[in-house]
């Protein structure tokens, strides 16, 4: 998949450099996704997955993590306008920390966690760079 990703990335860069403009970067993934969807439907075998039970979905963990990330983004976006030392920014960042700690504490106790926290301690994951598939060496450009 890395080769296909690099090919699409280079094709998009070429379109922008040849004068098509940066706006072509937005609709470009749509035909690629359509081709992948059609190819997947034709080439991949049909399997029957077990039915998903609502009891196994970690709704509390999802709410905690989503709320924490929302507060973090809000604080980072609003800080330049209201100031980094303002009560709004400080309160949002502190609330982010509290919700993130609550999320980690909850995920350690729940039987079907949203995020398996043991994955974070994986040595393979620690070696990977952002955007690299797990288990592969980071690529340098």
Oligomer status: single chain
Q: What is the number of domains?
A: 2
Secondary structure category: mainly alpha
Estimated share of beta-strand residues: under 5%
Shape: flat
Helix content: 55-70%
Biggest sheet: strands, sense, closure? none
Give the SSE order as H and E letters: HHHHH
Beta strand count: 0
What secondary-structure arrangement, pairings included, does this model have?
Elements: H1 2-20, H2 29-43, H3 59-82, H4 87-109, H5 123-127
Structural features, described:
- The protein folds into 2 domains: 2-43, no CATH class; 54-127.
- Helix content is 61%, strand content 0%.
- The protein has helices spanning 2-20, 29-43, 59-82, 87-109, 123-127.
- The longest helix is centred in the middle third of the chain and has 24 residues, at 59-82.
- The protein is flat and about 45 Å long.
């Amino acid at each position: 998949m890395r080769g296909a990703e690099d090919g699409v990335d280079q094709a998009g860069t070429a379109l922008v450099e040849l004068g098509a403009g940066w706006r072509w970067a937005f609709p470009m993934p749509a035909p690629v996704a359509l081709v992948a969807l059609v190819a997947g439907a034709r080439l991949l075998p049909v399997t029957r997955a077990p039915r998903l039970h609502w009891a196994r979905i970690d709704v509390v963990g999802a709410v905690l993590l989503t709320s924490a990330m929302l507060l973090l983004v809000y604080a980072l976006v609003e800080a330049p306008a209201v100031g980094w030392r303002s009560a709004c920014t400080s309160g949002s960042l502190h609330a982010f920390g509290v919700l993130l700690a609550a999320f980690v504490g909850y995920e350690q106790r729940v039987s079907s966690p949203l995020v398996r926290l043991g994955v974070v301690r994986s040595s393979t994951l620690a070696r990977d760079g952002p955007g690299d598939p797990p288990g592969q060496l980071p690529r340098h450009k």
